[in-house]
Write a structure and sequence with these properties.
23% of the residues lie in helices and 17% in strands. The protein is globular and about 55 Å long. Helix 3 runs parallel beside helix 4. The strands form three sheets. Strands 1, 2, 3, 5, 10, 12 and 13 form a seven-stranded antiparallel sheet that branches. A four-stranded antiparallel sheet has the order 4-11-6-9, with no helix packed on it. The protein has a single domain, classed as Jelly Rolls (Sandwich). The chain starts with 9 loop residues before the first helix and ends in a 19-residue tail after the last helix. It has 337 residues and is an alpha+beta fold.
């Protein structure tokens, strides 16, 4: 299903409501729309590599190589990848005044891309707020976890023996990482692969038609919240390979997971949330913003620097405080025994 500037068709909207997900192909042009983000991420990686080079942790690093080649070389040398430095959200742990966060114009231009907002508007209306629950994920090959030994071992749940950037994502619903007071908010997930996302590279997949059941019980583990396995049938799981620039829409109740990256490539993606303006985000400590409004267009945030300052202010305000935890389930829940 392809995108047009008129938004989604009636049949696409019906599919989304019935199945709980929708893939719209070729919404964004990777060469044009991702160019600035690729450049800004590359600059961050070069700075990190230079720092590690001075410490003797990495050598023969080529700052002019492709971003993927640099990520692979960095991960082989260091043994992990510092994903927080490239993410567009603060973490659920103690935040410091220098906690890494990427707030470049390359990300903001995608968050507010008119064509993307046209599609979002088809699902939630013309009053659109960008939720503060947003991420950029750089999923490195699982094989790198064995430091070049050529062995591929899938670890689930996470046991600390494999870099988190190499991990698969356990089955979950996105509503599980927002506070319960936002359960009624019509939050939709918008997942965008910045590189092709094949099954081998660790594409996302869903359990279609499970969203009418509402919130499912999850259990926390160090790798993330996981839906109680007995509640899902693996035979119903549907992998969704996608081309770079295509978009996956999901409801907040849609069970989904990411496959492990068994390729020798890097899977790079954006994981965004949008909701009708005025509804609760479930992340009160982090900044949301109005991206589009028909009632008062001047109130929409169009200044990248203003968006950046809101996140920097949040980081300064939260620095040194007790860790913020938004996951609603605890390991002592009766279904987790």
């Amino acid at each position: 299903m392809n995108a047009t500037r008129l938004g989604l068709s009636a049949s696409q909207r019906d599919f989304f409501l019935r199945e709980g997900y929708l893939v719209v192909e070729d919404v964004l042009d990777p060469a044009r729309d991702f160019k600035l983000l690729v450049e800004e991420h590359g600059n961050i990686l070069n700075r990190l590599a230079a720092r590690h080079g001075e410490a003797g942790d990495i050598d023969n690093y080529d700052p002019g190589a492709s971003f993927e080649q640099r990520v692979l070389h960095f991960t082989r040398s260091i043994g992990d990848f510092p994903i927080q430095e490239f993410d567009i959200c603060l973490p659920q742990k103690v935040i410091n005044s220098d906690t890494g966060i990427y707030l470049g114009d390359g990300a903001f231009s995608i968050l507010t891309h008119p064509l993307l907002l046209d599609l979002v508007e088809s699902l939630i209306g013309a009053e659109i707020t960008v939720s503060p629950i947003q991420h950029i994920r750089i999923k490195t090959p699982l094989a790198l976890a064995d430091r070049g030994e050529g062995k591929i071992v899938v670890h689930k749940p996470y046991d600390g023996s494999v870099p988190l950037a190499s991990q698969t994502t356990v089955p979950h619903q996105d509503i599980g990482v927002q506070t319960p007071d936002a359960d009624a908010s019509e939050v939709i997930t918008v997942w965008i692969p910045l590189t092709d996302a094949t099954a081998e590279m660790g594409c996302l997949g869903v359990w279609p038609r499970r969203h009418p059941g509402g919130v499912l019980n999850h259990c926390p583990n160090p790798g993330g919240l996981e839906i109680v396995p007995q509640l899902l049938d693996d035979n119903d799981f549907l992998p969704l390979p996608m081309r770079a620039g295509s978009v996956l829409f999901m409801t907040r109740f849609t069970p989904h997971k990411a496959l492990p990256n068994l390729s020798d490539k890097v899977r790079w993606s954006m994981d965004l949330r949008y909701q009708p303006t005025g509804q609760i985000s479930g992340r009160a400590s982090f900044p949301e913003f109005v991206a589009r409004t028909a009632s008062g267009p001047s109130s929409a945030l169009v200044d990248h620097n203003a968006w950046r300052e809101r996140w920097l202010e949040a980081r300064a305000r939260l620095a040194g405080q007790t860790a913020l935890i938004y996951n609603r389930w605890s390991s002592d829940a009766p279904w987790c025994a």
